[in-house]
């Protein structure tokens, strides 16, 4: 499994040691409002989420949500990665950051690196994104990354309909998304 390094960040696979961070991230009001209430209320639940979610995705698909850390300090600040959802025709990008790290460009930096990894390492040509209609910051970020609106999609098991975006990862259009460095993990 690969880790991605950018100018300020390390984007690496989650481990069970990240349970305390995951517990906090999944219970942030902004996460619950814009993504979902995952029902994780303690460290055992957080470890289960990691095992059954990101870590299972690594084993099944070779990708998943990764932990985003500040490069020098190793402080977890969010998550970003690729997700394979049964109800979408292509993989999608997902991200969430702790509120105190918003507005610093970390989400853009991490998402651009993940898209570069998708294109240059995994050979992916198209990535989707889903977002709630009222999540203006996420919609702006997707626009900066080159995503275009592509309709809506119903989320199975809920009564929610979310906006669907897509980006094509062609050679010329996505050259700036090449990862700045990768190291084995």
Give structural notes.
- With 185 residues, this protein is an alpha+beta fold.
- The protein has a single domain, classed as Gcn5-related N-acetyltransferase (GNAT) (Aminopeptidase), CATH 3.40.630.
- It is built from five helices and nine strands, in the order ββαααβββαβαβββ.
- The strands form two sheets. A six-stranded antiparallel β-sheet has the order 5-4-3-2-1-9.
- A hairpin with a 6-residue loop joins strand 7 and strand 8 (161-168).
- The longest helix has 19 residues, at 43-61.
- The model is unreliable at 172-185 (pLDDT under 50).
Task: Report the total helices.
Answer: 5
The coarse overall form would be globular
Output mean pLDDT.
91
CATH domain fold name:
Aminopeptidase
Proportion of strand residues: 25-35%
- What is the helix/strand order? EEHHHEEEHEHEEE
CATH-defined architecture: 3-Layer(aba) Sandwich
Overall structural class, as computed from helix and strand content, comes to alpha+beta
Cα gyration radius (Å): 15 Å
Spatial gap, N to C terminus = 6 Å
CATH C-level name = Alpha Beta
Number of strands: 9
- Work out the count of structural domains: 1
The share of residues in helices is 25-40%
State the low-pLDDT regions, or none: 172-185
Oligomeric assembly: single chain
Please give the largest β-sheet.
6 strands, antiparallel
Fourth-level CATH superfamily: Gcn5-related N-acetyltransferase (GNAT)
Strands ordered across the widest β-sheet: 5-4-3-2-1-9
